[in-house]
Specification:
By secondary structure, the chain is an alpha+beta fold. Helices cover about 55% and strands about 10% of the residues. The chain has two domains: about 180 residues, Transposase IS200-like (Alpha-Beta Plaits, 2-Layer Sandwich); about 90 residues, DnaA protein, C-terminal DNA-binding domain (Chromosomal Replication Initiator Protein Dnaa, Chain: A, Orthogonal Bundle), CATH 1.10.1750.10. The radius of gyration is 20 Å and the shape is globular.
């Protein structure tokens, strides 16, 4: 059987679904889920993926992600292999864990990102066992469910440094001081009423999620890809160019704060310029946390991870800092 073609370009957004072989469970204990998330976090950083949402179910998982480096296939192959090797060794089994290749549909950006995250985050209460439960019972179950990004979006638990919360929070509550509450209300409205419009959108194409025009262009791009033996032709669908040079990012930060690169590299502690350098080197220059640590003189990527978690929390509560971040990012992008 021919392998499924993947349309890849910088800035592509995908809804990825992976199911267990013969719909069998892919997690036998919480330890498996913990290890799954550890490996996911590592591969997200290694491949410069922007992960917007995830959920783990007994026999499948969902990811909503963006690929600034047009590398979905490599990321998914390495991640699925890493978890399969772990799972087979731990449970003394052999053979395939997942059912064939993963399903990945292109997403048409902002108009559908919010609704897709709601769809993903509501998965745990859309099972047969939960379908007849009351609104409050579903809500309590959702708040207690540990294996998705939802609880960290709404402030029940601390945010994870390898999940990119910013774009979705800006979409749901631009200008609001309590974005977590706004997002919680948006998602939990789906407990009472299904999103019929999203269901219609998701049924339009097996290749894409979006408007009729977007789905048509995606289908055409896949046909061209099949005819060109893997050469991607649909440049018009790109959202973002390749990462910016490290020097461009550092220059923008130094210019804004009137400091030198040496100040960023040699200063210890959590000066805001240094924190923003970590975030923008990751987002705009595409560096891994380990590479950022080396440049800034830290011991390893775990230090960067901790600082990013602090900064992301600050950005949610400090509008002046958020404006500074957006201003520097705008300067980098020209």
């Amino acid at each position: 059987m021919a392998r499924t073609l993947r349309l890849e370009f910088p800035g592509a957004i995908y809804h990825v679904t992976v199911r267990g072989n013969e719909r069998r469970t892919i997690f036998r204990a919480d330890a498996d889920r913990v290890r799954f998330l550890e490996k996911l976090a590592g591969k997200v950083d290694e491949h410069h993926i922007r992960l917007y949402a995830y959920v783990l179910m007994p026999n499948h998982f969902h990811l909503l992600l963006e690929t600034p480096r047009a590398n979905l296939s490599r990321f998914m192959q390495e991640f699925n292999t890493a978890y399969t090797v772990y799972f087979n060794r731990r449970h003394e089994r052999t053979g395939h864990l997942f059912a064939g290749r993963y399903k990945a549909r292109l997403v048409e950006g902002d108009p559908y990102l919010l609704r897709l995250t709601r769809y993903i985050h509501l998965n745990p209460v859309c099972t047969d066992a939960m379908r007849e439960q009351s609104f409050e019972e579903k809500r309590r179950f959702l708040h207690a469910y540990r294996w998705s990004s939802y609880r960290s979006y709404v402030g029940i638990v601390r945010r994870e440094s390898w999940v990119d919360y910013g774009p979705l929070m800006e979409l749901v509550a631009a200008g609001s001081r309590d974005r977590e509450q706004e997002y919680q209300q948006f998602v939990e409205a789906g407990l009472a009423q299904s999103d019929a419009e999203l269901q219609t959108v998701m049924s339009r194409s097996s290749k894409a999620i979006g408007s009729e025009e977007f789905c048509r262009r995606a289908e055409e791009a896949y046909r061209e890809l099949a005819g060109s033996q893997g050469q991607v032709l649909d440049v018009a669908m790109r959202r973002r160019e390749n990462p910016f040079p490290l020097e461009t990012v550092i220059s923008a930060i130094c210019s804004h704060f009137q400091v030198t690169p040496e100040f960023l590299r040699l200063r210890r502690g959590t000066h805001v310029a240094r924190l923003l350098a970590m975030k923008l080197l990751k987002e705009e220059a595409g560096l891994t946390q380990r590479e950022i640590a080396v440049w800034l003189g830290l011991k390893d990527g775990s230090g960067v991870s901790r600082h990013l978690a602090v900064l992301n929390h600050m950005l949610e509560s400090d509008e002046q800092l958020a404006r500074t971040y957006r201003s520097i990012r705008k300067a980098i992008r020209g």
